[in-house]
Amino acid sequence: MQTHNLILTGFRATGKTSVGRIVATRLHWIxxxxxxxxxxxxGAPIAEVVARHGWPFFRAAESQxxxxxxxxxxTVLATGGGAIEHLREWRELRRGALxxxxxADSDTIRRRLRHDPASxxxxxxxxxxxxxxxxxxxxxxxxxxxxxxxxxxxxxxGRSPEELAAEIVQTMHNL
Length: 175
Description:
The chain is α/β, with parallel strands linked by helices. Helices cover 55% and strands 14% of the residues.
């Protein structure tokens, strides 16, 4: 398989950005984070955009961003947790890319979100439900999508970003 990109997918707080930065450095590739790119394009944090315009507006902007990124080369892309739901765009984005699903159980995700001071403004509620219910509901819905839309699943539980990055780089070298 000829890979010219690496795409990291998974639920929020699974380490996509941390791992992605390390992999990009090791491969001497560009690193991009779709949440950061969306924030730059929209001129405000995601939570603010969602509060003003709603999730459908943000998801439409995210869809366009994914379409625009489909021609990237030698890029490590950390995607937002919901990017996998853009099925048509996802198919285009993953052509010639290795897609790695960084997975964690709901307790681990909840703990990471609780300890991340940036979660409130970077990761707005998706459903309006209490965080524990939201995580369970969304994981149940998205796990089949992550599985179908990925080439490799890595559990992030008990593993450092450096360990995960080393495994991903090794996998890429073995392709």
